[in-house]
Amino acid sequence: MDAQDIILKKRDGLELSGEEIDFLVKGIVDGSIPDYQTSAWAMAVFFRGMSEKETNRLALTMAYSGDVIDLSAIKGYKVDKHSSGGVGDKTTLVVVPLAAAAGVPVAKMSGRGLGHTGGTIDKFESIPGFQVERSYRQLVEQVNKFGAAVIAQTGNLVPADKKLYAIRDVTATIDSIPLIAASIMSKKIAAGAQGIVLDVKVGNGAFMKDPGQAAELAQTMMRIGCGAGKRVVAILTDMNQPLGHMVGNALEVREAIDLLGGGGPDDLRQLCTCLTAHMLQMAGVRSGYDQGAELVQELLQSGAGLAKFKQMVAAQGGELDYEPPGYGLPRAVIEAEVPAERSGYVVSIDTERVGRTAMRLGAGREKIGDTIDPAVGVEVIKKRGDLVKAGEVLARIYANDQARLESACQAIRDCYQLDGSPPEEQPLILQTFA
């Protein structure tokens, strides 16, 4: 078997055999297939696509290209939750303790952020003392004791995807639905959960801008997961404005705690309820979605979700005082308000630009290795459909650098589009695939 023949076959739009995909993945991992040939194959896939059979085989072969986590030592039906990335998306901080409080064990491995969307691990690391690096034994012990753990990806998990993604990133082949789906699901399969709830973002702040493509991605990931023996639910959710109000690591932790304590913004509560209810139904804790959603509301009102969050944070070395408004989280030294220059309804928000502005304040990374400032970010006060009067505050900037603050204020002001008429209402949850 030869890499050149595999490239030629895919270039001509033909379906690769399982053995050819296995050969390709093995060569990517051990280096026997050079990067330039991997790049050529990825470009051929970008233009020619992959069949369902090919995509499923690629995901499974990559999943088993390195370590695979065995969660059988954890009692109960293990469910994972994955988001395709969005601005202000702090759902993991809420969903994991809520699911655990309902009796669903969650052993979650998450990543750090890159670009305009924040990383879950960066958010947890903004909690003083919180340890994201945990051994397998510590992970199992913590989940068996408290029901929940969120840790950084460890060991040699899916090395094929690490190498292939790095090549795709520099060869303009990221935007391929089969490659995106195989990349995401290979990691989910290797992480060991029995059930997976996927939150696929779509809109101007998401990786997927087009609803049709987002639906195709969701269904492709579902087919991969089901083919691997997993139960999968995929939900399409709107990302044409930030989720909640806070964008920035410690700020988002603060908002998540507010929600777990019975407060928090309505859109964040709605989405967290939806995701958690599907997890409860999948695990058999409740027989239907509506019953799961009712239980989630009870857990929020009773404070059981917040109590589970406190347990998880303490188990991983985190120290918070849980006294509002700051909860003992890092705080920026400069705060500045961004007023509206005229009156009108907020008809749109450039969500990706909000995320990039937070990143340039120090809340995210433009490239791997950049240092994160956990305290900085943006508070989006006015959302889509809100009526704003001239001089009213649209947003608030949290910064530790005056020069960055000034450019951020102008950038956030430019993110808002106002009009004399209100926009059409747009649902947060667009479609569910189950």
Textual characterization of the structure:
The chain has 434 residues and is an alpha/beta fold. It has three domains: 3-49, Transferase, Pyrimidine Nucleoside Phosphorylase, Chain C (Transferase, Pyrimidine Nucleoside Phosphorylase, Chain A, domain 3), CATH 1.20.970; 79-315, Nucleoside phosphorylase/phosphoribosyltransferase catalytic domain (Pyrimidine Nucleoside Phosphorylase, Chain A, domain 2, 3-Layer(aba) Sandwich); 334-419, Aldehyde Oxidoreductase, domain 3 (Alpha-Beta Complex). It contains 16 helices and 13 strands. It has helices spanning 3-11, 18-30, 35-48, 52-63, 91-101, 120-125, 136-146, 159-169, 177-190, 211-227, 249-260, 266-283, 289-302, 304-315, 351-363, 402-415; strands at residues 79-83, 106-110, 148-152, 195-202, 231-238, 246-247, 334-339, 344-349, 377-380, 387-388, 393-399, 416-419, 429-433. The strands form four sheets. It has a four-stranded mixed sheet, sandwiched between helices. The protein has a four-stranded antiparallel sheet with strand order 6-9-11-7. The protein has a three-stranded antiparallel sheet with strand order 10-8-12. α10 (211-227) links the parallel β4 and β5 (231-238). α15 (351-363) runs antiparallel to α16 (402-415). It is globular and about 65 Å long. The mean pLDDT is 94.
